[in-house]
Amino acid sequence: IKEWVDQMQKELITLTDTASGMQNLIQIYHKHNPHFTVESNNARELVATAAGNIEGLLANRSHALKRLASQAEKFQMEHEWMDNSEADKIVYYNAKEDLNQTEEAKRMKNRYVPDDFEIDPDFKRLVSYNTTAVHIPTDIYEGSTIILNELNWTEALEDVFRKNKEDDPSLLWQVFGSATGLARYYPASPWINSSNSANKIDLYDVRRRPWYIQGASSPKDMLILVDASGSVSGLTLKLIRTSVSKMLETLSDDDYVNVIYFNDKALYASCFENLVQANVRNKRKLKDAVQNITAKGTTNYRGGFELAFEQLAQMNVSRANCNKIIMLFTDGGEERAEEIFKKYNPKQAVRIFTFSVGQHNYDKVPIQWMACANKGYYYEIPSIGAIRINTQEYLDVLGRPMVKADKKAKQVQWTNVYLDALELGLVITGTLPVFNKTSTGSKKSQNQLILGVMAIDVSLEDIKRLTPRFTFGPNGYYFAIDPNGYVLLHPNLQPLTAKFHEPVTLDFLDAELENEIKVEIRRQMIDGLKGNYTISTLVKSQDERYIDLGQRTYTFAPVKGTDYSLALVLPEYSMHYIRAKIGDTITQAKFSESLLADKFDEYGYTFIAPRVYCKDLKPPDKNKNNTEFLMEFNNYIDTKTPNNPMCNVELVNRLLLDAGITSDLIKIWKEKELQHGVLARFVATDGGITRVFPKSAGLSWEEEAETYESSFYKRSLDNDLYIFTPTPYPKENTSDDSVLVSRAVNIIIDNITLKPAVVGVKLDISTWMANFINSTQRMNCNNEICGCKRNDENVDCVLLDDGGFLVMSNQDDDISKIGHFFGAIDPILMKDLVNSSLFTFKKTFDYQSLCDPKKESKAAAGLRSVYVPTIADILNLGWWATAAAWSILQQLLVTITFPNFLDAAEMDDEVSDAMLKEVCITEQTQYYFETNNLSFRGDIDCGNCSRTYHAEKLPKTNLVFVIADAKLTCLFCDTRPLIQDEQQSDGPDPCELAHNPRYRKGPAVCFDNTEHV
Description:
The protein is α+β, with helices and mostly antiparallel strands. It is about 30% helix and about 25% strand. Strands 4, 5, 6, 14, 15, 16 and 17 form a seven-stranded antiparallel β-sheet that branches. Strands 7, 8, 9, 10, 11, 12 and 13 form a seven-stranded mixed β-sheet that branches. Helix 2 packs across helix 21, helix 3 (about 45-80) packs antiparallel against helix 6 (about 155-165) and helix 8 (about 235-250) packs antiparallel against helix 9 (about 280-290). It starts with a helix and ends in an 18-residue tail after the last helix. About 45% of the residues are buried.
């Protein structure tokens, strides 16, 4: 078998080397040496510069924010309160107004629609720079006095917005979110987004957006206390469940929360026994737990409050350590529990908010007293409509300490990453609270109310522009994290969802494959330290099918003026890069001539990476083909020359240099005939050129034109091997029976090793199969294995790649399965290869997948946990007068009206995938070679029979040859397939994670002073 393997390996490698002209390419690079220099990437300097640039960008935005906030306070102070009679003097553009207004709407004096909307390239939607737009939530009456006054004074902000935009034309949305729920934003743009076409309810409320919550109050430790005693009947319990869900939505990742319910005694609603971070998964767990609470027993407030205060007093767990709050949801009660408050809350350090839920005639005084005696507030939630407003009002109270701290609280805060509601994509937002400075004439000189939050967006695209990566090679990249450890910049941060209410929090340790040193790097970055580590780490391939071991150097530094930290990751072969120096137009013209589309016959089919070579040359959309972009590029440098000030000269010249170098290689290819069995040859470069020869093979070329995102390219750099890549198996409508073989080109210049290109060939499967069977024959053999005959009944021979995917077989039936995972073809053999340490695997969670939403029957949901009357009851007239009957009627009415109210927001036919599907977690499994050993053998015992196998790796490649007794010789083996495909999953168990939460840091300042507030 060793002989066969050596023979196979030699044939494959010689074939690849000769066909791809690897040695020739190395000589061509040396020949072109005068056209480039080798520069080094100094990681520390690069990080310092990029962090400085980001700091500059955010400082500009902060400056604009401060101007807005101080002006807003001034305008509000000077504003005279008006009553309703003057309402029609106010004119504004309501963003939800239909663009082609009806006649009736035109008659309404105080509404108008700007007539100068134009599609703006920065926003990619209709905007008008001459005015602002106003958004008022659906459940707020726009004619109310409060809203009219708010409209009146905020109108003056328009000039400040405009001035900011003139000073810094790169500004995006500027928004004032008012505590009344009104939002005014500039530039004006219609409130149309894919989730609220005409038949949908617009559920947007500015006060529930992550940036508003983060800007309007300091972080909070919230304990939600639910009364689950017997008196909490069906409808009340349903209202409480919905209220708690809505309350959880007002929390962000900086907050901590837990839910407790009590009747005779107090119990945890879920598996969480202390406060947990209010992240998406923990909140979902708590929402589900609240749905399962059932009401019974007596009301014991003491037990509930005792457990609640104990939770808030725990010091040995991670928590926000700022505002402490208890939220009590109850139907009312007799008891005041005064001694509990004296004992646990003598200084009123914990605020208590109480909610009287449902319609009933219990005494409200005790629970009102609880709130007022503990610096809280009392709210009533009689019906479903009151929930949204009343569960967010508490934020006004929590904003008071900020107003009191005034200047100190005037610090720009930067948020986590989230999706912009007006389709800007991923943004981070700078926020500043705006305070009410109106004097009330009494001793308390101020109203102590927060007016709202001023916000300015920074698109992640802008930050990416300040962190260019094209000198780092495809496996080098920047990333940045916030104090929660979430990435705001990372090549793997690619949320697929388009729903803006879905958070996009991806922890650094989930964006990459976690190891202990990365945990330490993350901790130091959160703490704002500088550092640098060189580690060997597992790396997931771009197509997420393979795992490689690579060496990486992590260099990081804080971004001053913010709590973000930036890092640069470089493999050792990216410590240096090639910089083209072809400034003269003659050389440029000579090199660019080989890029012309009508020269494809001569120079092979050419693809160029879709990069921003020049600011006025837009890279292509997903659906535009590469050749069109190539022609636009040629046309551009023909008319405007590559040295145009709009162009990134380094990027353009590198592309042209690579065009020149690869065209020289093609000339050599043309002199040699294509060997038998080779379908095509290709070369791809860091500079962004891919050439496939002959031209005919280029038409069916499926790989990424952007070499920085090409899976085989990135893998070839990390492995000094010949990498065989079978076409991944959903072979969509391609008759492409081939396997890609690629290898990185190593060039040594002045003792520096560079890997500027990858060359390779496409092998024809049927020719290879014949060679494969030929090279595994033994002459003159008697009664033993005579090699791998085609379709041999006794012996299976296969070649697998390092991910466990099938590359070659001696069975015709399996040839169609090339590119499939071997565990689905011969499960028991694959399992044994894992047990014998040839393969091992890693399971990881992908938090950015999309799945079809789970369907639940809506009608059934309403009537659970409801007492169902018997026939005798219904016949008894007295029964109709009881509370039970009314409770059931109420139930029925709610069930009829309520689900539809929520579902109305879910139906739409022509919506993209990203809108219909939900964000979900999937589990991925990747297999890889466990050790460097070359030979493995063993017996698979299946009870009544066994199968022997021998496996031998092919040196210098990522292949392993396996010969075994055929599947059909032993039918007693376990045939359940080993699954490698992504599977939908619930992710890691939040209950276990809560015992050992990841390190994070809250904001440096906390405003929770409760004295006189």
